[in-house]
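Quick one:
INPUT:
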């Protein structure tokens, strides 16, 4: 299920499509979610070949093989990304920053 968020510019519409992670989501959907949520593009974007993508995909698949019926929340996905892709975050004592560099 996808929802569109669009804003009109002078010439074109720029759209961000929000995705829901569920039992039918594959590694490309996982990568799209990560890059979209963290606003990564170009060289800073996560590749489908990043080892963390496979780990996150395996976790999602395990959830549904154990009987999960609800979609994976953004909070759950962010938690997984923070664990498996720590290089995209800057940490301090009380909070974190997303570091797209």
């Amino acid at each position: 299920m996808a929802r569109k968020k669009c804003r009109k510019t002078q010439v074109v519409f720029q759209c961000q499509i929000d995705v829901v992670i569920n039992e039918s989501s594959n590694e490309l959907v996982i990568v799209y979610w990560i890059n979209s949520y963290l606003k990564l593009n170009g060289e800073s974007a996560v590749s489908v070949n990043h080892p963390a993508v496979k780990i996150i995909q395996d976790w999602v698949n395990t959830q549904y093989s154990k009987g999960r019926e609800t979609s994976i929340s953004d909070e759950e996905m962010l938690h997984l990304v923070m664990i498996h892709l720590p290089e995209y975050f800057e940490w301090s004592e009380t909070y974190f920053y997303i570091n797209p560099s």
